[in-house]
Amino acid sequence: MKEFIQKLKKETLAYLKSLNWIVLLGIAAFSIVLAIINNVRVEDAKSVDWIGSQEILEKPADIL
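User: That's the sequence. What structure does it adopt?
Assistant: Structure tokens below.
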């Protein structure tokens, strides 16, 4: 079992080293840029607040 775990770690590490990290990071950065552009493009009702928290809504009078 110990040999299997070592082999699995070795194969996983080899797989991670084989990935083209520059391309993966570029795709991630491009996705973030597209998300920001899309948020600016849509109307305010559908826009996302990037910084801050969600507004707290008032409770209806009949619940209080």
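The radius of gyration is 23 Å.
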